[in-house]
Specification:
The protein is built from seven helices and 14 strands. It has a six-stranded mixed beta sheet with strand order 8-9-3-2-1-12, with no helix packed on it. A hairpin with a 2-residue loop joins strand 6 and strand 7. Helix 2 runs antiparallel to helix 5 and helix 5 runs antiparallel to helix 6. The longest helix is centred in the C-terminal third of the chain and has 32 residues.
């Protein structure tokens, strides 16, 4: 049993490490207070609640608009912070103004996005007005003439930041965090205050599909396959044992959700998603997602070619099927943990604690079922109940006596498990939707 529980214990360890990293990242986020002129004489796009990590303020001056960027450096040096002005929520042919903090100097300049690339632009119609760093906060101000960039038209406002690398294009690396995007178009002639970030539909769909797959369908399907093979042995569902039909249905739903989520996010990202110089654990999200998708596809593919239950090599399939499925579950849960912390997901911080409660509950229910299997069923029969799926009419497929001893307990537990998992699924889906 020790070997079988090692991957599950690894999930708990990885979850604890992940939670500690997330909490540390939140604790290290330096803060400053919102400009008191926001909402009166200035418009602002900011993440300020009680404190801020970035703020973009603007003030209409007639023929020009004055912008001020403030950004918490988090003790970093050689960084850039920038705004993008766009007619849509995607990186395209957009105007950019970036502020470089390098060697103690703040320097502002214009650039241009062309597709996925950023290139230098003419510095006409643009003038830097201030640049300083105080108490770990970068302040960068500049005027943009409306003749250079059409600021009379409402636009989406992007905020991004990243490290400066002299050898890279334009002396900077790609953004280290997914850019913040104003949830609505900005009127640069107004003094509106905007918070939050736009969450695009396909990102939501991706997250909802993955949560449905692993929190809902897989959580119930795995428990059924592990502990309920002897149950309802006298009944068939569409010609197969009840546990097998339910397990297969749930795992097919898991597969369909995972593949759909995989396709959706690649369509949204128009290729591969990368994070440069972000928190280390966040960089793993796209890689883990690909691994999870591959494992999810491999497992049912193996099942299609499984040997007969009486074959001498059937145990190889059994262990491979269990191992691939267990690794996929562990990595999927870790990937979901990482996913809800990404700024582009827009998930509230408390979702982490719901997910942690789910992991604790799933471990608890499997430990309880394992204890029941080992100490109640096997103690009375001298063998386990997780025998091979066979036709009910096959020799040796009679219901073991131990089933009757644990039937009521298992019926109660699967009902309770289904209700609790449904509760966790709804809570997480509603939180991230």
């Amino acid at each position: 049993m020790t070997r079988k529980w090692k991957p599950i214990l690894s999930t708990l360890s990885a979850g604890i490490i992940l939670l500690s990293q997330i909490c540390e990242a939140h604790a290290q986020a330096a803060k400053f207070t919102q400009d008191p002129k926001c909402g009166s004489t200035k418009g602002c796009y900011t993440d300020c609640a009680q404190s801020c990590t970035f703020e973009v303020a603007w003030e209409d001056k007639g023929t020009a608009v004055t912008f001020t960027i403030r950004y918490d450096l988090e003790s970093k040096t050689d960084v850039w912070a920038a705004i993008g002005i766009s007619q849509d929520m995607k990186m395209g042919s957009d105007n950019v103004v970036e502020c470089h903090y390098e060697s103690g100097t703040v320097r502002a300049m214009r650039s241009q996005n062309t597709g996925k690339m950023n290139i230098a632009a003419e510095q006409t119609g643009f003038q830097q007005t201030q640049g300083s760093v105080a108490d770990g906060v970068l302040t960068c101000g500049f005027d943009i003439q409306k003749s250079a960039i059409n600021l009379d038209a409402d636009s989406y406002l992007f905020f991004a930041n990243g490290p400066i690398f002299p050898k890279q294009i334009n002396g900077k690396s790609m953004h280290s965090h997914i850019p913040k995007i104003s949830p609505s178009m900005v009127d640069f002639q107004s003094a509106q205050v905007i918070g939050g970030t736009a969450i695009q539909l396909l990102i939501k769909v991706h997250g909802l599909l993955m949560i449905s797959a692993w929190i809902a369908f897989a959580s119930i399907g795995v428990v059924l396959a592990r502990y309920y093979k002897p149950m309802w042995a006298e009944r068939k569902l569409l010609g197969e044992k009840v546990w097998f039909q339910i397990h297969r249905t749930l795992m097919i739903l898991t597969l369909l959700c995972v593949i759909s989520a995989f396709v959706v996010i690649f369509v949204h990202a128009e290729g591969w998603s990368q994070f440069s110089d972000d928190e280390e654990y966040k960089k793993a999200h796209p890689y883990l997602g690909v691994i999870v998708t591959a494992l999810t596809f491999i497992n049912p593919l193996m099942a299609l070619f499984r040997p007969h239950p009486d074959d001498q090599y059937r145990f190889v399939f059994n262990w491979a099927h269990w191992f691939v499925g267990t690794v996929a579950r562990i990595l999927a849960v870790i990937t979901i943990f990482i996913g809800v912390t990404l700024s582009e997901a827009g998930a509230p911080e408390y979702v982490i604690y719901i997910l942690a409660a789910y992991v604790a509950y799933q471990l608890f229910i499997e430990l309880v079922m394992e204890f029941h299997e080992c100490c109640v069923v096997r103690a009375n029969t001298g063998k386990g109940t997780a025998y091979e799926m066979k036709n009910i009419s096959d020799p040796g497929s009679e219901t073991p006596a131990a089933v009757n001893r644990g039937r009521k307990f298992k019926n109660v537990m699967i009902g309770l498990h289904t209700v609790v998992i449904a509760g966790f699924t709804v809570a997480i889906l509603v939180s991230v939707a």
